[in-house]
């Protein structure tokens, strides 16, 4: 196996690393305190192509592979999870169009999404669904001109910002996906939720009250929404795993830096065995999560289905993030609990990774069900 990045992948990684250090990091505390992503940051990120990594060049994107996208998320997450997630949400909408959109849909929406002129959101979660898409209750009633949508979506990233929404709704054919422009009558977003972490990310409810959409708003094959969701969410989970790795690396970097500087008994605490063991465990956990995440991204680029692999990567990486950030706070001692230290923010942000895009418990169910199914195939 070759563990080396290609020249193109290394270049995009270094580009994202420089952007994170020079542009995102200086604004990260402001984003956390004010709970908003500055427009100037979004503009700069779009200019760098960070909202269009996998979008083909003919639609205004960079035309890179999925692993390159994962590398970008990892680097940006080291500076700000909120900024990294804003890129990830845009990707989910673009990915939906790239995989299932018609030529006309791609031409109409992808250039505006790639430039971040238009903001997208991906809406399938409902109060009753949790991680079960089969429980979706939003309805799509067929009309003479198209469909009429009614329902409520909850905990939707970019709900109050979005210009374009991918909406999953149920009709007589089963679950289907629709491209909905949010300025349509009957479409509204609720107030943004107050979050424990990920400050700067806008999360809220979407209400659909007799929203009329045309027939060409249907995304993909009618009634194929469940299969579409499985594939799209597996890509989303791989992105979350990459962000968990980036956040964990940032926490380790802070812990190492503090351990070198902090002195007890006239020597740096990095010389104490208990601190060394904590740092060593953190580094080993991160590397394991990183390799599993990269392997999953590589499989996506090879055209493989990664339902089990994405669940494994997200499960491991999100739990590593919680452990590593907790250790990082512990290395800082009481100072780690102060907001002026970066590890405090990282600790809050890490908790979200085990619940968004499907909880850790659900990932275990997915992994186990795939293992059992594969076992029966060999009998």
List keywords for this structure.
379 residues, alpha+beta, four-stranded mixed sheet, four-stranded antiparallel sheet, 10 strands, 15% strand
Give structural notes:
This protein has 379 residues and is an alpha+beta fold. Helix content is 54%, strand content 15%. The protein has ten helices and ten strands. It has helices spanning 7-34, 39-47, 66-79, 81-100, 103-114, 225-261, 273-301, 307-332, 342-352, 360-377; strands spanning 120-123, 139-142, 146-157, 164-171, 174-181, 187-189, 203-214, 218-219, 263-264, 267-268. Strands 1-4-5-8 form a four-stranded mixed sheet, covered by helices on one side. The protein has a four-stranded antiparallel sheet with strand order 2-3-7-6, with no helix packed on it. A two-stranded antiparallel sheet has the order 9-10. Strand 9 (263-264) and strand 10 form a beta hairpin. Helix 1 (7-34) packs parallel to helix 3. The longest helix is centred in the middle third of the chain and has 37 residues, at 225-261. It is globular and about 80 Å long.
Question: What is the structure about, briefly put?
Answer:
By secondary structure, the protein is α+β, with helices and mostly antiparallel strands. Helices cover 54% and strands 15% of the residues. It has ten helices and ten strands.
Instruction: Please count the beta strands (DSSP E, at least 2 residues each).
Output: 10
Number of helices: 10
From the alpha-carbon coordinates, what is the Rg to the nearest angstrom?
21 Å
Mean of pLDDT: 93
The 3D shape can be described as globular
- pLDDT < 50 runs, ≥5 residues: none
Q: How many angstroms does the end-to-end distance come to?
A: 30 Å
Order of helices and strands: HHHHHEEEEEEEEHEEHHHH
Largest sheet: 4 strands, mixed
């Amino acid at each position: 196996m070759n563990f080396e990045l290609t020249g193109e992948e290394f270049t995009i990684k270094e580009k994202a690393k420089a952007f994170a250090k020079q542009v995102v990091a200086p604004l990260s505390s402001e984003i956390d305190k004010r709970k908003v992503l500055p427009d100037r940051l979004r503009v700069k990120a779009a200019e760098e192509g960070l909202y269009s990594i996998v979008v083909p060049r003919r639609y205004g994107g960079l035309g890179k592979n999925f692993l390159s996208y994962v590398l970008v998320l990892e680097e940006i997450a080291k500076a700000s999870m909120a900024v990294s997630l804003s890129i990830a949400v845009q990707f989910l909408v673009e990915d939906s169009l790239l995989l299932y959109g018609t030529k006309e849909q791609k031409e109409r929406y992808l250039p505006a999404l790639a430039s971040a002129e238009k903001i997208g959101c991906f809406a399938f979660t409902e109060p009753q669904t949790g991680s079960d898409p089969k429980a979706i209750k939003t309805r799509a009633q067929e009309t003479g001109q198209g469909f009429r949508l009614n329902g409520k979506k909850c905990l939707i990233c970019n709900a109050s910002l979005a210009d374009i929404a991918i909406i999953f709704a149920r009709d007589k054919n089963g679950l289907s996906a629709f491209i909905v422009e949010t300025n349509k009558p009957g479409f509204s977003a609720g107030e943004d939720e107050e979050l424990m972490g990920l400050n700067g990310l806008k999360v809220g409810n979407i209400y659909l009250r007799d929203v009329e959409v045309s027939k060409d708003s249907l995304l993909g094959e009618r009634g194929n929404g469940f299969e579409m969701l499985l594939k799209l969410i597996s890509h989303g989970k791989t992105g979350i795993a990459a962000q968990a790795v980036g956040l964990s690396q940032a926490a380790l970097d802070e812990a190492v830096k503090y351990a070198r500087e902090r002195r007890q008994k006239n020597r740096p605490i990095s010389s104490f065995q208990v601190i060394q063991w904590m740092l060593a465990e953190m580094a080993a956990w991160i590397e394991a999560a990183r390799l599993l995440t990269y392997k999953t991204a590589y499989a996506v680029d090879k055209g493989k289905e990664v339902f089990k692999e994405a669940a494994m990567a997200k499960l491991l990486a999100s739990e590593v993030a919680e452990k590593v950030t907790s250790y990082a706070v512990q290395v800082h001692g009481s100072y780690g609990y102060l907001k002026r230290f970066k590890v405090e923010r990282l600790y809050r942000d890490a908790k979200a990774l085990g619940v968004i895009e499907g909880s850790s418990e659900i990932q275990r169910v997915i992994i186990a069900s795939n293992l059992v199914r594969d076992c029966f195939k060999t009998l």
